[in-house]
Please model this.
Amino acid sequence: MILQVKDVHKSFQVKNKELKILKGVNLEVSQPQTLAIMGESGSGKTTLLSILAGLEPPTSGEVQIQGTDLTQFSEAEMTRFRGENVGIIFQNFHLLPQMTALQNVKLPLELSGDEQAEQKAIELLEQVGLKDRINHLPLKLSGGEKQRVAIARALSTKPKLLLADEPSGSLDIETGEKITQLLFSLIAKYQMTAIMVTHSQPLADRCEVTYYLKNGQLES
Ligand SMILES: Nc1ncnc2c1ncn2[C@@H]1O[C@H](COP(=O)(O)OP(=O)(O)OP(=O)(O)O)[C@@H](O)[C@H]1O
Ligand SMILES: [Mg+2]
Model:
């Protein structure tokens, strides 16, 4: 089993009120595939992705990735597990601003102790068409270029599970389309399972399965 989500609930405490966002999310992914998660703004998509990434604990319920229960990890164990098994593309890229494109992509490889980190990072940046931008700081990259660095970084350790929050969200249609094509070709190449949160119907149409987050639950 690649991913198993069992009855996940998530509430936020705001002032004295309990805000229930996820109310029993279930999901099973048993073979590499591409999944889209759609749903209204505020429905809890990013919240769910953060829980799947182990960045935030569920209020209750269970998340297993490759048979391992995330909730039993300490923070250090979680960071390590994530580094080796999960790639994440965030809604706003989250590149480290003081690091060049190359350093951003190289970092997860170095953290995993890969001795060929530099060479692999350069190859990845070449694959996403940024050979001439490897020494640029994020500030000096365009939106689409930043997105491509984020993709290269998320794929650097060849994780089996890729989580992406609006991977083409803030780009113009043409650039978004190019980046979508690039992303799907890399997902197929590395045989990854990808879960993409999106408002874009064309992006969802490219995925094998589409779920809707509604009333705190996933519907197909
Ligand atoms: N840390 C938090 N504390 C309190 N409320 C939160 C917190 N994080 C998220 N929320 C609330 O939970 C709801 C779901 O947020 P989330 O970011 O998951 O929505 P989303 O489906 O990703 O929306 P969008 O499509 O706009 O990105 C929102 O109403 C948000 O205000
Ligand atoms: Mg969101």
